[in-house]
Specification:
This protein has helices at residues 7-19, 24-30, 34-37, 56-68, 71-79, 112-131, 156-164, 187-192, 213-230, 234-241, 249-255, 281-308, 315-329, 347-359, 383-386, 391-396, 417-439, 472-493, 504-518, 527-543, and strands at 39-41, 45-48, 106-107, 110-111, 145-149, 177-181, 201-207, 242-246, 262-264, 334-339, 377-380, 402-410, 462-469. The chain is of the alpha/beta class. The chain has 2 domains: 3-87 and 309-443 and 455-493, Glucose-6-phosphate isomerase like protein, domain 1 (Rossmann fold), CATH 3.40.50; 94-286, 3-Layer(aba) Sandwich (Rossmann fold), CATH 3.40.50.10490. It has a 6-stranded mixed beta sheet, sandwiched between helices. A 5-stranded parallel beta sheet has the order 6-5-7-8-9, with helices on both faces. Strands 3-4 form a two-stranded antiparallel sheet. The N and C termini lie far apart (74 Å). The structure holds 6-O-phosphono-beta-D-fructofuranose (F6P). Residues 151-154, 207-209, 212, 215, 271-272, 357, 500, 503 line the site of 6-O-phosphono-beta-D-fructofuranose.
């Protein structure tokens, strides 16, 4: 089916046309109750959509679109383990990873819940061994530092959560220094290794496929460092210093990580949806298993909300539908993620992968090319820093941009007056910026005497997400909120959000070029690539010592 023929799509187009000349400031003037009507709160969150260019009618028409696209049915397919990832013929069961024991899910012959809890129990034993100093390095020293080696979904989620929740690492058991390494060129290891003690460092090789060249290259460099520093045989180094977190135990074994040092997960966990699985090991090492389980609990609460709540009060559904409205009906194709909380500095990078790798597609589930837009370009930064960087474009550029402002209401309650003031300052800036972006000049009391250069158009739409406070539970809920938002949009756009074929070819091309860097051959290369290789080779030759 080409969804653009469906009735609700046409109705939304007509509705968008009728709102075309209506500025956000007019919408606020017309309806004094706009906030009450266009904000939704659950126990831990408030989502304010009133600064979006929508009315009550927009929302009901969007919900109508969701119903015509059978969103309710798709949500059930997701939760019950149907093969929603159709190009790879498998389910996407990240919700099962945070489902409690008493909520069993059987998919074909697999008791998914049982398997999930067994794997969590194995992870818990490992976490305890490391935290209680029972896991020893090659000379018998307890582990002090952990380095997660992984990239994409095997890096961004755990890194973002560890950064966001580091204040929960305060118990004596959570004194581990947890580091992350991802970049293919070895830059991070080059800096990090000299700061670590080989005998007390444990490496986690995180890779679902265990074939990602970036990760294997970093793992090889780490092992070379340990071998040199210790003088121990490779088997001892593998046993004492490497854990593999993977869906490919055979490849991990071949690299040198034996079964006892492996934590396994399943092909139905997508990389960018995997932080809830054993891929979350660095999180559990950093904040403890209790904190990790609290995060799962918060995500599960969002799952229950998503599955059971009517669409007009359903946070992921509304977030997703309003995104569709902006992209397909208001022609806004840029999306800024603006946390007003330094603890969420890594959230934009995490969401870049989650949203763009999931929904950056142009072919529908039936293999047909789409004739409408899908995922916008998404980027972001801690809001207060971004104010001094790219907000100029948001306020006065030519590009319409939708923004998500994300903040926590409470912070630093017992940390001293000055820090509390800093939190108030950050909150004030968050609210001021979304207000100015929405209302333009009319947000400011005196509008006179502004030169044209000082003029603010406004009418840039935004959603503000307020968490009561940033805790493992609320962060779990926030991440699940975005995961489900992405799913909602995929249903409207009729695409599969769980594959990523678009990143595969680049890996093949890079492998074939690796050989060319050593010996230039003319075979089939374009002029630019040939020219660049030749330049690099020339530079390397110039640095070689001259023979007499
Ligand atoms: O290249 C993209 C990708 O496949 C992501 O989808 C994934 O999260 C990342 O690489 C890492 O993959 P792996 O965990 O298999 O090393």
């Amino acid at each position: 089916m080409n969804s653009r023929n469906i009735k609700a799509w046409a109705a939304l187009q007509a509705h968008a046309e009728s709102l075309r000349d209506t500025h956000l400031k007019d919408l606020f003037q017309l309806d004094g109750n706009r906030f009450d009507e266009l904000s939704v709160s659950t126990g831990r969150f408030l989502l304010d959509f009133s600064k979006q260019r929508v009315t009550g009618k927009t929302l009901s028409q969007l919900i109508c679109l969701a119903e015509q696209q059978e969103l309710r049915l798709w949500i059930e397919k997701l939760f019950t383990g149907e093969k929603v990832n159709d190009s790879e013929q498998r389910p996407a069961l990240h919700t099962a990873l945070r489902s409690p024991h008493d909520d069993p899910l059987q998919v074909n012959t697999q008791n998914v819940t049982e398997d999930v809890h067994c794997s969590l129990a194995k992870m818990e034993r490992l976490v305890e061994q490391v935290q209680y100093g029972q896991w020893r390095g090659f000379d018998g020293s307890p582990i002090k530092s952990v380095v997660n080696i992984g990239v994409g979904g095997s890096n961004l989620g755990p890194l973002m959560v560890c950064d966001a929740l580091s204040q929960y690492a305060s118990s004596p058991l959570c004194r581990l220094d947890v580091n992350f390494v991802s970049s293919m060129d070895g830059s991070e290891l080059e800096k990090l290794l000299p700061t670590l003690e080989p005998a007390t460092t444990l490496f986690i090789i995180s890779s679902k496929t265990f074939s990602t060249i970036d990760t294997l290259a970093n793992a090889n460099t780490a092992r070379e460092w340990l071998l040199k520093a210790s003088g121990e045989p490779i088997d001892a180094i593998n046993r004492h210093h490497f854990i593999a977190v993977t869906g490919n135990p055979k490849a991990a074994l071949k690299w040198g990580v034996a079964e006892d040092n492996q934590l396994l997960f399943w092909d139905w966990v997508g990389g960018r949806y995997s932080l809830w699985s054993v891929i979350g090991l660095p999180i559990a090492l950093k904040i403890g298993m209790e904190g990790f389980r609290a995060m799962l609990k918060g995500a599960h609460a969002m799952d229950v909300h998503f599955r059971n709540t009517d669409f007009d009060k359903n946070l992921p559904v509304l977030l997703g539908l309003i995104g569709v409205w902006n992209v397909n009906f208001l022609n806004i194709h840029a999306h800024a993620i603006l946390p007003y909380d330094g603890r969420l500095a890594q959230l934009p990078s995490f969401l870049e992968q989650l949203e763009m790798e999931s929904n950056g597609k142009s072919i529908n589930r039936d293999g047909k090319r789409l004739n409408y837009r899908t995922c916008p370009v998404l980027w972001g930064e801690v809001g207060s820093n971004a104010q001094h960087a790219f907000y100029q474009l948001l306020h006065q550029g030519t590009e319409p941009v939708m923004c998500d402002f994300i903040t926590a209401a409470k912070r630093y309650e017992s940390e001293g007056e000055e820090l509390q003031k800093q939190h108030q300052l950050s909150l004030a800036n968050c609210l001021a910026q979304s207000r100015l972006l929405a209302l333009g000049d009319s947000a400011v009391a005196s509008e006179q005497d502004a030169s044209c250069y000082q003029h603010y158009d406004g009418n840039q739409p935004s959603t503000t997400i307020v968490m009561n406070e940033l805790t493992p539970e609320s962060l779990g809920g926030l991440i699940a909120l975005y995961e489900h938002k992405v799913f909602v949009q995929s249903v409207i756009w009729e695409i599969n959000p769980f594959d990523q074929w678009g990143v595969e070819q680049g890996k093949n091309v890079a492998l074939s070029l690796l050989a060319e860097l050593d010996a230039l051959s003319d075979d089939g290369l374009d002029a630019s690539t040939k020219g660049l290789i030749s330049y690099v080779q020339q530079c390397c030759k110039e640095n070689e010592p001259h023979e007499n």
